[in-house]
Each structure stands twice: as structure tokens, then as C-alpha cells.
């Protein structure tokens, strides 16, 4: 990975530009910064205006409307705002609109319009500003709309949202979760079912009559209204005006799209969002369908050859020495003779049914017109089976089914985390077929794209628990331990990909992460599942997706953590194809079906939380359906180099799983490099046994993702944008150091992962109950984990030389750490943010381990080079102390240190940290790490802090 140049000067320049954009400013040349941004061109006077700092009054026709003025309408209100660039907002009843920013140069036609539609309906007709990319932005409670060169309907009624492009070039949408969608053809609508943040999925579909009528009704006048005119014209005056001949004789123009075939190949878009090639059109203007690979299944009577995976009577994992005797209950399907077959299915019933024979048993599956549907049918042998089927047009089919168990054995209920349901999954069957994707359609014609796919729930989980969930690549037996209450609340990043025009040079990547921290203290449960890897082109199989399975879970504070290993890979169909559809719309993600490589779980503490060692291996299957495709240019992707701190509780397997706090002491101990050109991230982390609580280990040095120190990417990371990235292990840069300085090399791939807190939104909300989370937009912090295993061959090695060290959901924080010479030498500053980390304590019921968060505050006198810091409400405890430093050479990274304690003198420890450069200067933020313990060592905690001025 190429080291990025520190971005101090560039960030300062961006800050100046952002500050100018945040206020109403005079633009160079002939541009005007207007306080009168427009006029009320039409009004029904159930409408109010509130200028900034002034009283509310009724809108009157011809009123000059000024910058940041709020327009509110009641049940019969209607206002049309004509802006000076020719743009208009028509605001309907029960609506709320503010023009936040308006800068316009009439000579050049350049500038910017930013508005906020808080509720209601509006129609926007673009003027000169809308002809520029990024010229018009409308903020709403569910996300931000961009409109270019067009007319758009905006509807926030009925608890949802519908945004329709009626005419023009583009309507873009960025949701509260950072996901972006884009409409670049008129006659389409972006619909959101629910306006609750984090609880909706945007859908782009054809505009329908209800979409049009919903806005039209809100914009229609009412009987008796006059539009604000004091003397309405009489019928005779209207007849004599000539308006009828000019207007009413014109033909009706519809904004609804005419029916046409589906778009097959996405339009090529540059990073700046410009269309660079056109979709092929036929003589009548319709888009021509291009089919790649085998022909699609006929509507009726045709045949498709599907790959069908079933459970064998036993399963022998390739990298284990045992046999699984009931593989179906652990999702281990296919991969063995007789359980991994191809079967011919026939489309019948006018395209509504799929009939085939598997294992001598004939089954007829009802087919939906599209999407996913559940079914329950009786097979030719009299078995009742239940399952689901996926269909995407005529290029992808997938189904799964199980024998329906009518008398399930129930798990005794002992709390909200327990479940009741079948313990046996009888003969799981999974089949799929698709038309191979032409790699050029995704990697070349779809240059520089970011795609979001949604993954279906694993079918074995659904059969065993009766619920679907988004904790991916999970052992079904682990799902039972976590329970349905936990699984139903898991958050996910969805499956994200970034592709470029040349796979050899642009290195297409993917990532997916699922996560949840639920509860606090000893009752806390937590889980994270991460995969990041590469998308590459195989000469025979087309596009292939592959990466490692990483993460882990803890059922409660009393239970050991369990860490993941194993593969995540696209599963080929019967013809060897991995990715399906004209534009890469579908694929199946699973384990190493072909080589019997399974997911496997491990724990530092024995006995394992599973009933048997054979229960630790598993398989998994997820169907991927594309949800959005956006140009890379819509996202912020920065090549940069950050430094910081990390911490974690190391569970030492050779010592019965006892947790020992390890953390960083200087900013050089954590380095993270981002390479936006190669879509990759690399990190090097060192954590120390600062309290000397481990009997022999002094430090863990861990590599994550792509190498910071060698040339060429290794594919163990993915950078989607500045908020969404993930790193897994880097074997070659991982080792441990003993107390006597001996280096301990790993004897297997470490189960390492590293993610930012922004990757899976809302997954850690439980930690911040009663705690203010730092926004800290210019800082980075998140979670990491590892399993280090190696032979300690030093002379002072303990009796058991095998190291087994586990970390589950450690924490890290990083930023653009300033050099000592850049820091101010006069003045003082106050910082506020949060602390987040791990707690280990001893109770009468045994050891307990969990995550916690608290408030972080710090005041610092730069002239005296000293200050005070405090962490409050961290696991119900408060502690703090004095901070001294930094000192050192002008070129060296700054870092300070302080002692921690509490008035009761029951806790003591250390805080170390650094000042971080932000948009406001070289000391706008703080990152650091801490560790505290009580005198007897029965309570220890370690974590990281982030704060900003």
C-alpha cells in the first residue's frame, strides 16, 4: 500500500471552503449572495412565513422571501416560490420548507441552492442552478435529495416518502445510513415505506398513478380560494383574455412511463456522475434486451438445470479430524457424492410453477413473479415440506425447503434470549440456477460503481428458529444460543462492493458486516460477523467472490467469547457460473462447498460452549439480491494515513480463559492507511500488557488487511468509502513478544478483524444509554478482534508452551495526529466525547466480561502543557486525574500521559493520548487509551477515548 501524505494543509483549505458554504456569502465575480432569494408567485393564504429573528405573519402574493425564511402551510395552504434563478418550489398543504442556502451568479449560471422540506409535499421545477451537478439539494427527514436539470415531486405524507423524477437528468438520494441511490430516467420513483431512521429500505420503481395523485392532491387548490389576489377575475374577463386558445387547446402531457422491458445493462457513469455511453435502443425507442450465457427458462414447458445441495448422512470437514454425524442441523449441505447434484426442473403453469425430482422425490414449487415467497407443498412421497423461493426475472431462481416437523421438541424458556422451536432439521435442500453475468457488464460497462446487495437469511436458521435474521455466516447452533430476541435485532451493513473498469488495476472488493451489542453488564450479549475480500474474473467461471469469515460472539458476560474462521465464497451453479443476471444482480454466498472447507468456531475457555467439538463447524447459504448501484463519485473516499490507540481484553487460553487488559501507549502503536485507488485499507497495531497481568506475554503485534509495508494488495480488506471499510487478518505482520523479548510467530492464520463504528449503524446503541456519543466526524474509532495461536519456545516459557490468546470486540481510535511542533503554545481548550472499552471482573458466580461506555471530558492549558481529564458513568464508575505533556522533538507525533483514580481510591490507572488535527486546527480533537483496576485485580477495564473541542 502506498503511504498517503498527511492532509493538514488540504484539510485546512477544505475547512475554509466549508465555512464559506455554511454561511450566505458573496461569490467572486458577478455572483450575488442574496438575502431576497425569491418571491411568493402564488399563494392560498392558509400559509405563514417566519423570517429569521422576526415574527410569523401571513404570506402575501408578491412577498419577497429571504434567506433562511420558514414557509409553513396549514390544511388549505399553498405557496409557489419563484427563485431568482428561475427555479420554483410549489409547496402543498400541511408542509414546511426553508431555503437554507442560495448563492447565484446570473452571468455564469453557477451557484448553489439548499432547501429543507421538513414535512408535506412539494414540486420542484429546476431553473439554471439545477443544470449543474450538485447545484440543487433538498434535505428531508429521511435523507437528502439532489435534483439535476429537472422537475421532481417530493412527498413526505403518510409516514413514508416518495420522490419522483418527472422530467430531467437525475434525482439522487442519500439516506440517513449513508446509502445512495440514483434515478437517471424520468418516470421513476424512489419510495421509502417508513420514515423511521434505520428502519427502511429505499426502493426505485416506476412511477404510478398513486405517486402522481398523492402530490397533485396536496398541490390542488380548494373551492373559494383565490391564490392571494384581492379581486379575482370574473368569468367574462377570463373568456376575453384569450387564455383558452393559448392553453386549453394544447394536448395532455403524461409524466408516467410507458411500459417497456427491464433495463439490462447499467449506464456507464464516470466518477463525477456523467453518463459516458448510451443503452442500445431499438427502432421504436424501447431498450433492447441483451442475454449473456444460456437462454432464460421459457414461460412454460421449458427446462432448467439446477445445482441442488442436500445433507448427507455424515460430513468430514477437510481441515478437521472428526466426522459430523448430523450435518443438516449445522447447515453442512452439498460437497459430497449424492448430496451435491444437478437436477432438471421444468417450468409449468404458464411460468407459475417449477417441477423437478430430487432423490427420487418429485416436488412442485409455486413461483412468484419476482422477489422471495414462502411455500408449503406435499411431495410425491407424501412429505409436507416448507420453504422459500427467490426469483429475479428470467435470469435467476433459487429455492430451499425442509420437511415440516409437526411435533417440535422445544427448548425450555429461561429468558427473553431463549427460543422455542425445532431441534431437528430434516433433509435440508437448496437449489439454484442463473444466467451467467458477462464480467464486462459489471467490471467494464459498470465502471467505478458501488453496489449494495441484501442477503437473505440462512435457510437452516429459518427452519430451526422460525425467524429470519441478518447475522450472516453464523453456525445455526450458535444462533440457538444467542436466541431469537437477539437475532431479530441484529444490524447489517448489507453486502457492499466497489468495482472499477480494470480488475487488474482497480482491484474490485467487497465487504459485509453484521453486528449487535445488546444489554449491559453481566447480561450483555454481543456478536459481530465480518467478511472482506476480492472480486475477480476466472477464465472458466466468470466473476468469483471470495474472502475469509471473521468475527465472534458472547452469549452473556459469564460465557467465553467464540471467534470465527472459515471461508466466504460465491457458490457456482451447475454450469460453474458464480454471478447471475445481465448486470450482476444475484449470487449465492456460502462456505467452501467444493473443498469441504467449513466455518469453524473456537474459544479460549474450555469446555467449549457447544456440546461437542463436532458442533464447532458449520455451513451457511445466503442469496444476494442487488438493491442499489451508484457511481463511486457520489461517495467520499480519501487516501490518508492515521495514527492512534487500541485496547482489548485478551482471554488467555493457557490460563483458563482469564481476561488480561492490553492497550497501546503511544500513537505510533496504531497506524491505519487508506488507499482509495486500490479500494484497500491496512493497519498495524501493538497492544501491551501494561499492568503485567499476563505471566509471560508482553505484547501482541497484529497486522490487519492489506500490508502497509510491502508492495501489492493481498485482498484482505475493502474500502467502500470513508465511513464503510473492513479489514481482516494479515498473517505475515502478526506476532507476539514474550516478557524476555522472544518473538512468537503464529502457527495458523489469526482470526483478526477490524471495523469502524460507522460500518453497522446502530449496532452498539445499547452501550450509549445515558452516554453522549461523540460525533467527532474527523476522527475514527471502532472495534477489532483476533485469535493468536503460536508456540512459545523461549527459555522461560510456561509449562504449556502453546499460546492461545483471544480478543472479542476490542476498541480502537485514530486520527491525523499532529506533531509536537504544530501544537499551540498559548491558550487553553476543553474537549468532550466518550470512552468505550471492555470490563473484566470477578464475581461469586465466576468471571464476567462485557463492553461499556462513558463520557470523556478534558481541559488543557497549552501554555502550561498540563490539564485534567475525567471519564464518567463508565460502567457506573467515575475516575480521572491530571494530564502532563506532550513533549519531544518538533517532528515527532505528540502524546500526553496522566494518572487515573477516583475519590474512594478503589481504582487507579493510566490515560495516554494525543491531540488530533481537525478542520479547525492541529488540536481540534483528542484520541487515547486507558486502563484502570482495583487493588486486588478483581475489577479491570481498558478502552479508548475520543473527544473534540
Concise synopsis of the structure shown:
This protein is mainly beta and 949 residues long.
What does this 3D model show about the protein?
The protein is mainly beta and 949 residues long. Helix content is 7%, strand content 45%. The chain has nine helices and 61 strands. The strands form five sheets. Strands 1, 3, 4, 6, 9, 10, 12, 13, 16 and 17 form a ten-stranded mixed sheet that branches. It has a nine-stranded antiparallel sheet with strand order 5-2-7-8-11-14-15-18-19, with helices on one face. An eight-stranded antiparallel sheet has the order 23-22-21-20-27-26-25-24, with no helix packed on it. The longest helix is centred in the first third of the chain and has 15 residues, at 8-22. It is globular. It starts with 7 loop residues before the first helix and ends with a strand. The relative contact order is 0.08. Residues 1-35, 195-199, 246-296 and 406-425 have low confidence and may be disordered.
Number of helices: 9
Helix content: under 10%
Task: Sketch the major β-sheet.
Answer: 10 strands, mixed
Q: What value does the Rg take, in angstroms?
A: 30 Å
Structural class: mainly beta
Please indicate the percent range of residues in DSSP E strands (runs of 2 or more).
35-45%
Unreliable residue runs: 1-35, 195-199, 246-296, 406-425
Mean pLDDT: 81
**Head-to-tail CA distance between termini:** 33 Å
Per the principal axes of the C-alpha atoms, what is the gross shape? globular
The tally of beta strands, per DSSP, is: 61
